[in-house]
Recover the amino acids of this structure.
């Protein structure tokens, strides 16, 4: 049989170009990636063999061999895992299945990272072999078959596959090491790399060299036992980190490590990590958690729905159960009471670790919150039991300063007579801060929380209460600012004109209502405003304005509710209008002013205008008369 040529998928070719031309200095990580793949292959076969024991064909001692041939200038990594057939090779070593790789290449291309050590996170770790090899060949025989295939590529546009042979199942990856990278042919160097990155691998990793007498009888370089089964006191920080990177497909340091054994009626071990950096897939629509389920040290699945809640999907790590049967199926897992138990423990333990961190390391906790707070907040409405605990952990931007505050902090700073916790939701901080709704609060020194995560609108519906205090949007309902004794002094207002008489004001309001008709729900005066003449608010029983905008954008609501137009009775323009109406009566100018002010309020709110052209005409006509 002759070798058949294949083209790499365009994306792979691009990636290979990046990898082969990279000046990235820590090329040693290629070995971590290849060993990690070998380990995965062994894990996959062990799992498949539960249902089909014949697959391991009497050889269930999984191991990984690292072999150096200095004469040939080659380094090979062999495993007796699941192996690949021709189709597997085309699929796995010629195309990129996972969407993550695009993200990776964008980052590299934009120069956001020159750090290729993150490659494994994007599901393209295999290609890192081309950092050190001028040619890579992969010979593999799939478990349960007799035929082996060899894949060869020089890392440019194409590769070949031909039939070959191999003793027993598994995969051997042979790297023809480049001249500049000869260090990777030194066994002491390989040993050092494996100790650094791969000690946690469950299977023995053995190094041998062609001039090595003892050969495969050599002692394993690693401890070859599942890391989580070892006593905590014997695990170094580095080992935790490498395990975290392996299991979580991550490249940063874990911010938090939770390693604990649950004992009692049911027994299992948790080894969970919270990343330091925000993973790129945190906001994928599937919102899947990333905790892997093991049974008696055998990897079962990373898709055990219900094992961890999606509001903890930033967690990485494993749960290893002593009690579940090895042949537990996905369907069985769906209503497995044990899973509920584990989930409960994961939630409980993670939250209490977070509480400790918040207490002991407020700065670190703030950084955590900035990464993952938006995800964790989903728990407030998804899990009523832990909702209050999450609220207590929650941190918010606020008008009180640039630092994040907790609700406890907010409550401590509440003014005498202030009953509610005030907040505003907006698309970003700048928009929140410039909202006219804040003016009256700012003047009184009443703090307002600035909420900018999409999830905020959801948990605030019905869960907006803390410490017996209602959480109230400043864009909603009548603001009861007059009840609050704020910082405001009489002098602050001395230079402000006095508000018009009640009766005159009522006439203006009536004129506005008549002009605007059905486009507003009501017109009323407000003490929410200081500098702006008008603003829109939602009526007490109506939906929050931003939430409604969002739902409307997603076609979840048909028609937007009508708003209340609030006017600032102490604003010079309003006072002028009152005077004019009293002196000259209703006319076209008052009408036009009402329409202009209403449109302005909508613009400030970010609502689209019904008729922007009319707005512009009115504005121009008003300006030309004034100038
Ligand atoms: P990832 O390991 O994240 O899937 P890689 O680029 O490292 O991405 O590997 C790509 C795929 O190639 C693997 O998912 C696997 O299917 C296959 N593969 C790589 N090495 C081996 C191996 N030693 N044995 C079996 N399959 C392998
Ligand atoms: Mg891999």
């Amino acid at each position: 049989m002759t070798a058949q040529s294949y083209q790499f998928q365009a994306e792979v070719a691009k990636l290979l170009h990046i990898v082969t031309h990279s000046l990235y200095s820590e090329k040693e990580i290629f070995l971590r990636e290849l060993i990690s793949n070998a380990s995965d292959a062994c894990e996959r076969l062990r799992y498949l063999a539960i249902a089909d024991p014949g697959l391991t064909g009497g050889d269930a001692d999984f191991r990984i061999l690292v072999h150096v041939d200095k004469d040939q200038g080659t380094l090979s990594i062999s495993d007796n895992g699941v192996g690949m057939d021709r189709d597997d090779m085309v699929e796995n070593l010629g195309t990129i299945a996972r969407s993550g790789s695009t993200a990776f290449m964008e980052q590299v291309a934009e120069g956001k990272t020159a750090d290729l050590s993150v490659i494994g996170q994007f599901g393209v770790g295999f290609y890192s072999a081309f950092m050190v090899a001028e040619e890579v060949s992969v010979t593999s025989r799939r478990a349960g078959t007799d035929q082996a295939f060899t894949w060869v590529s020089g890392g440019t546009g194409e590769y070949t596959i031909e039939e070959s042979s191999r003793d027993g199942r598994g995969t051997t990856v042979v790297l023809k090491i480049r001249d500049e990278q000869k260090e990777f042919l030194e066994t002491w160097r390989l040993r050092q790399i494996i100790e650094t990155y791969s000690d946690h691998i469950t299977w023995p990793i053995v190094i041998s060299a062609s001039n090595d007498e003892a050969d495969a009888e050599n002692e394993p370089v690693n401890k070859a036992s599942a890391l989580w089964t070892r006593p905590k006191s014997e695990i170094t920080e580095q080992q935790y980190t490498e395990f975290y990177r392996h299991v979580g497909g991550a490249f940063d340091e874990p911010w938090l490590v939770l390693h604990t054994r649950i004992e009692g009626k049911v027994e299992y071990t948790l080894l969970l990590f919270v990343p330091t950096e925000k993973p790129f897939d945190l906001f994928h629509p599937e919102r899947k958690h990333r905790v892997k389920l093991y049974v008696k040290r055998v990897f079962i699945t990373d898709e055990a729905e219900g094992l961890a809640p999606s509001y903890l999907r930033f967690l990485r790590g494993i749960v290893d159960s002593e009690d579940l049967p090895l042949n537990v199926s996905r369907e069985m897992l769906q209503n497995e009471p044990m899973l509920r138990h584990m989930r409960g423990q994961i939630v409980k333990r993670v939250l209490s670790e977070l509480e400790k961190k918040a207490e002991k390391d407020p700065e670190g906790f703030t950084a955590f919150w900035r990464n993952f707070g938006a995800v964790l907040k989903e728990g407030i409405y998804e899990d009523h039991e832990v909702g209050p605990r999450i609220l207590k952990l929650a941190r918010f931007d606020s008008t009180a300063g640039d630092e994040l505050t907790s609700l406890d902090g907010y409550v401590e700073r509440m003014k005498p007579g202030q009953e509610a916790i005030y907040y505003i939701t907006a698309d970003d901080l700048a928009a929140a801060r410039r909202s006219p709704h804040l003016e009256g609060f700012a003047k009184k020194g009443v703090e307002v929380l600035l909420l900018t995560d999409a999830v905020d609108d959801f948990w605030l519906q019905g869960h907006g209460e803390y410490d017996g205090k209602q959480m109230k949007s400043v864009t909603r309902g009548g603001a009861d600012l007059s009840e609050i004794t704020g910082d405001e002094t009489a002098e602050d207002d001395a230079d402000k004109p006095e508000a018009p008489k009640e009766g005159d004001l009522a006439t203006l309001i009536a004129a506005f209502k008549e002009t605007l008709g059905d486009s507003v729900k009501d017109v009323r005066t407000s003490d929410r405003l200081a500098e702006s003449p008008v603003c829109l608010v939602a009526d007490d029983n109506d939906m929050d304005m931003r939430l409604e905008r969002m739902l409307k954008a997603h076609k979840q609501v048909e028609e937007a509710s009508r708003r209340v137009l609030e006017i600032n009775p102490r604003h010079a323009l309003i006072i002028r209008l009152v005077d004019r109406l009293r002196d000259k009566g209703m006319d076209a100018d008052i009408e036009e002013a009402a329409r202009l002010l209403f449109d302005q309020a909508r613009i400030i709110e970010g609502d689209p205008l019904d008729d922007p052209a009319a707005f512009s005409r009115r504005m121009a006509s008003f300006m030309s008369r004034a100038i």
